[in-house]
Amino acid sequence: MAAAAAAAGPVFWRRLLGLLPGRPGLAALLGRLSDRLGRSRDRRRRSPWLLLAPLLSPAVPQATSPPCCLCPEGVHRFQWIRSLVPEFGVCSSHVRVLSSPAEFFQLMKGQIKVAKRRVVMASLYLGTGPLEQELVDCLESTLEESLQAKFPSDLKVSILLDFTRGSRGKKNSRTMLLPLLQRFPEQVRVSLFHTPDLRGLLRLLVPERFNETIGLQHIKVYLFDNSVILSGANLSDSYFTNRQDRYVFLQDCAEIADFFTELVDAVGDVSLQLQGDNTVQVVDGMVHPYKGDRAAYCKAANKRVMDVIHSARTRQQMLHAQTFHGDSLLTQEEAAAAGDRRPAPDTWIYPLIQMKPFEIQIDEIVTETLLTEAERGARVYLTTGYFNLTQAYMDLVLGTRAEYQILLASPEVNGFFGAKGVAGAIPAAYVHIERQFYSEVCSLGQQERVQLQEYWRRGWTFHAKGLWLYLAGSSLPCLTLIGSPNFGYRSVHRDLEAQIAIVTESRSLQQQLHQEQEQLYLQLSVVSSPLFSHCVSR
């Protein structure tokens, strides 16, 4: 009972905070007590394994969830998210869930070939193999056609990558893209984000690869004219062949495409700009990310990104009454007949941004609130390729009432399995964290409510992340989170992340999401104590 009370403590404080929107003084006091409790519990649980690399460090929960204004019925209970971010209402027929790396790769190539106005790609890095070259060749062909067309189009290509990961090795993301920059200097922009936390002596001493643990550009958005792919997949051969991830295609969604174009432009403006001679420059008037003053840089970056979020939210506010209350809109049948008005949306998209170095933590707040408010009888399917939940997320999973099915990579399908040097020990470190969490689940007697499951598939690796929420009594999910965050320390505290919450009342789209979840959860083994007893031989 004492252990259960300890796990439920932080949840109690968060719920009490949500009931005090008009009492800022008391709310601040309770917030400080909650943070102090979380920090003391972190110190007691710290493990020497966590010294392996910063990506394995436990988190100190700092975000306070907003006062909840959940509606009592169906998908409309999630409209509180629009108080934080823009809300985009769409028809479910414009949303398609992809299932395989090959489908993802072929769709990207097809979309590049028909793009007329813009191609925007944000990823951790671009690989250097033949499949990645094929993607670059597609971009080159489309740019060439745009210049030679009878009526030349104003096609622009903007690519955002991480500086440290994209500069690794002699042949790297930068050298792959240089020919495009050199041939189409007026149409191509390549931005390389450099974390402000890697600077000074640290930057000089930390070697290649290890410097990537300090902080990264981790957003994965692939945009072609008015269509967008949100995913956790990078632009690398394994992500096109045998590395399982998640992908959603938003087709002809101009307002969402505009938002993510502006977001990538904003991050690009605070990043280093790749030049045709493989040097980099800062955008005129911008503070240098690692040579300039860190506080000034982060303040400028915060303003640049938040301006995008605020302006998009303002634009969408005019549509709110129409978005959640469709009585002023036509039905889909009526709209088709009239031909001049959009049908009532049945699906709502919320972009969730997390950039803790810039003090932007929207994704963290929304995720914590969703976990907090999942009621008894609800089911949450949560998946991550790297099991290292922050302490706040662990507390919520252990202290709330919903049922949880958590899918994670078995050691053999972890992307670091078989790597040389220290990196080869990372799968074992994740197994250690998994064992610790499972032990806590068992000590609280919650094995039935919280189940861990490992993904295994011969010849494949696992990189899928996100969650599906099934309301109590429902056999289909009405909400999913999909994008780049892993729910871990780095996603919350170090990296730049973006995902979307998809809320839908469309049974067809709910079935797509359910089938996606079922397909991923087919390749699993349930975690139990005997599994750990032979993990050394695995």
From TrEMBL:
This is CDP-diacylglycerol--glycerol-3-phosphate 3-phosphatidyltransferase. It comes from the Eukaryota. Keywords: ATP-binding, Lipid biosynthesis, Lipid metabolism, Mitochondrion, Nucleotide-binding, Phospholipid biosynthesis, Phospholipid metabolism, Repeat, Signal, Transferase. Gene3D superfamilies: Endonuclease Chain A (3.30.870.10). Residues 213-239 form the PLD phosphodiesterase domain. InterPro entries: PGS1 (IPR016270), PLipase_D/transphosphatidylase (IPR001736). Residues 1-18 form the signal peptide. It is an enzyme of class 2 (transferase). Belongs to the CDP-alcohol phosphatidyltransferase class-II family. The gene is PGS1. The keyword Metal-binding does not apply.
